[in-house]
Amino acid sequence: MISTDFAPNESWDDAILSLKLLFQPWKWMRGNDIEQVKRKLLSKLLITNNKYRISLFLSGRSALYFLLKSLNLPKGSEVLVQAFTCEAVVLPIVELGMKPIYVDIEADTYSMDYRFLTSKPGNKLTKVLILQHTFGLTPKYRNKILNLTKERKLIVIEDLAHGFNKSIFSPNNQYLISNNFFLLSFGRSKTLSSVFGGAIATPQSTINNLPMPSTWFIFQCLLYKPLTMLIKSTYDIYLGKILHKVLNKLNLLIPEITKKEKKGIYDRLFNKAYPNALAILLLHQLNKFEQIKQQRAKICQIYNQHFPNFILPSSKPASIPKQQSSNFSLIRYPLLTERRDKILVKVNKQNVYLGKWYDEVVAPKDLDQSRVEYEQGSCPNAEKVCKNIINLPTNITEEQAKRVLKILNDVK
Ligand SMILES: Cc1ncc(COP(=O)(O)O)c(C=O)c1O
């Protein structure tokens, strides 16, 4: 099985660590590993100026919720957010009585397009801008957007949930000492996975004193890694397929998005502290992060050589800016094609599962769209990309990448 979505970050060493932790419940709640994670994250973000603190949460969405809450903005405040995003970004905004204002994207880095941003007049109620680094690409218009936020005195949250290019944190980066916040996620589909988890980097203050998740929740998180590894490694001989179905039926595979969230309602289940057990899983991933990044970069290069312009034949051109395409490590590799459905059916038959981030302006597709306040037709670029995008996996071996390309080539 080759999959972009299914447990892309897990390997047997993660599974074994998780399995051991299942038998060490005294390590689950509080412990020193949480502080170690904070220190490691700051060094990964290259933040060495002592101006930032890390606060950890049970998910990226709850990290965003508490960050927005801590700003004490008046009800009805507007948050500028790009179209082509997911419920995790929008539901906390709506839950806090704020209004998401959608800005259309450009198709080079799938991020907010400055030109559409300037066409939205400054409004007294507009207080925050969330700048998403989609797939880990630095937004094409990042500098211009950050300058505009300074002019308009907006609070900026850079959403680094998908990853980021280290250069944004170069030591001379003036934004590090301004009123900028950074959002991280350690969900199962992100570049670092502790199944659930999120963080914010804030200037000075931290947010804490949240209750711990239940032991049942932590137990389910710890089960996730060994179970998904079992499924992945036996999928091609059918056992994994059956196992997947059975475990889902028994509710033993904890879902990434809850039923409540699919109804478009923010789930306070995630308004919890980050437990030590997940910090241990995250530390393990942090320790091998450079190696995984290099592997992802290698796979991206293989794809890049195959699709020089990030497209499949018969699709509209899209390209990654040159400076980002040489040494980059994307969480998933985006391609635009008008033959998406045909391709997905064809590859699925060979146990290859490609991703569709995002197939809706506010993903996932089965989310109750009436709750997210998006007006159809208002961001046409994002809508078009949603119809054509597929994502290739990057955390795989070179042989697997070549197999993916071969299968794609064979789609007539
Ligand atoms: C762009 C973006 N930001 C933030 C998040 C929040 O992540 P989490 O799943 O940890 O709540 C996600 C999750 O998918 C995301 O895609």
UniProtKB/TrEMBL annotation:
Family: Belongs to the DegT/DnrJ/EryC1 family.
Residues spanning the membrane: none
Gene3D superfamilies registered for this protein in UniProt: Aspartate Aminotransferase, domain 1, Type I PLP-dependent aspartate aminotransferase-like (Major domain)
Pfam families attached to this UniProt entry: DegT_DnrJ_EryC1
InterPro entries attached to this UniProt entry: DegT/StrS_aminotransferase, PyrdxlP-dep_Trfase, PyrdxlP-dep_Trfase_major, PyrdxlP-dep_Trfase_small
Keyword rRNA-binding listed: no
Protein's UniProt name: DegT/DnrJ/EryC1/StrS aminotransferase
GO MF terms, alphabetically ordered: pyridoxal phosphate binding; transaminase activity
An example Gene Ontology biological process: polysaccharide biosynthetic process
Keywords, alphabetical: Pyridoxal phosphate
Keyword check for Repeat: no
